[in-house]
Structures are given as structure tokens and as C-alpha cells.
Description:
Radius of gyration: 25 Å
Structural class: alpha+beta
CATH topology: Rossmann fold
Helix content: 10-25%
CATH architecture: 3-Layer(aba) Sandwich
Strand order of the largest sheet: 5-4-3-6-7-9-8
Shape: globular
Strand content: 15-25%
CATH class: Alpha Beta
Number of helices: 5
Distance between the termini: 16 Å
Amino acid sequence: MADGYLVSDNPWMNEAFVAAAKEAGGEAEAEVTPTLTPTPTPTLTLTLTLTLTLTLTLTLTLTKAEAASVLHCVDDMSHACTTAHAVRDVAARLGTEGHLRLHEDDAYALAARWPRVSGSDAPLDLLWLDFGSGVAVSRNPKPNPDPDPDPNPNPNPNHSPHAHPNQGRLDEFVRAWWPRLRPGGLLLLHSALTNTVTRAWLEGVRARARGGGGASGGASSAPEHAPSDPFGGDEVATLSFLEPHKRFQNSVAVLQKRPAGWGEPVHTTYP
């Protein structure tokens, strides 16, 4: 055993190799490459190919420990050029249709009906959020979410200068789906680093992790009209991956749910 690999079919112990060496006239040396065989480990390999649209949300759930995993795709099919419906055909060609369910629905409204629609109340392992500019469908340059706006507001000095008035839709999504994510589960947010709308929201999450404010965009504190913490008080660990050679659609931000009292298991004393 070496780093989890079992070295098998060692050529120096292989009878055919020994016989060939003798035939060549003695103790011949040869360049050989041992075969490395990974020790058996239960794994799941999932390949998904589709064109994403503004309102597409993907969730991965394991209904039971012994059951097959299921990829749930949620799309309201409202985009004029949507190809989300084609995912069924792709899955059929790959022979993975048994692991896929496509829901033509609104992701925000679906959370409340999820156990009935999915047939299970089991927690989700992963949420992939990729509705992009769907968090900012309104192009009104001066929308104000406050129903009774102050005509002479005092700007919050701690509020992100890049905050977008519609980024609250991200809070709305998290508030609806975060409780359905298992402890240790992941929320993956596509393309959140280099655009104004989602970067402001992500900075709020980072500030919250540092103990400096809510997820709704404040660098140190959320604005007064901001809703309550969409993460329900859970600790949120964040990690972002950037594709620096691209200007659009170029990153993934990973948010891990770490509620109080939860942590990865400890199996050994040393690494």
C-alpha cells in the first residue's frame, strides 16, 4: 500500500517477465512501469451537459444513504432562448435519466412545496445557483425596496458602494433553501466575483463571516431595511474560484453550511 494505492502485478515478480529475462540470456534489465490500482472506494461520478439560463437552479440530493442520488433541475422556462428542457434528452443519451428530475417551476416558490414535489424531506447535499442576472431582473435605475422611503435619506457609511437594489433576491433564495441544506452541505454560486450585482452580496457574506454585518451587502452592517439573516445564524465558510482569463461567467463561490455544534468527524490522531 502507498498513499491509498495497492501495487499489484509487480513486474519483478511476474513469471512471464522472469522467463523472458532467462530467455534473453540471464539477468536482463528492462524499463517497466508497475501497475497502480486504487483501493476500492464507493464513488459517484456525475457528468452533466446543458445550456444554463437565467433562472436555472440545480440541487443534488441523496434521499437515503443506500439510495441512488438524484439531480433535481429547476427552471421556469421563461427565457426566450432557453434550452433547459433539452437536459432530459441529454440524460437519456447518457443513460443517466434515472438520476435526473426536471421541474418546470419557480425556484423561489418551490422551496415551500419541496417535500411534496420531490417526494422526500431529506436534506440536500448541494445547491447550484446559476440564475445570474435573474437576481436583478428590474432595470429601473432607482428602485427603492422601502414601501415608505425617506425623501432625505442619510446614506449608511458602511453600506457597500457597489450594492445593487435587487441583490435582495439572493437573500430571498438563501432564506428559502438554506434550511433544506444539510449541515456541511454546499451552496455554489456561479459568477459572483467580477460583476457588481453578486459581488456586493458576496462581500456581505464575507463581512458576516468576519463578524461585521449581514449578507445583504453591508461591509460592516446591513442597511436598516435589510431582512433578517438569511443563513439563520449558521456559520458560513466561503471559498471562491476565479478563471482569470475570462471576463464573464468566470467564477464559482462555494458557501458551506456550518451550524453550531457541527464539524467534520475526527478519525485519527495523525494525518
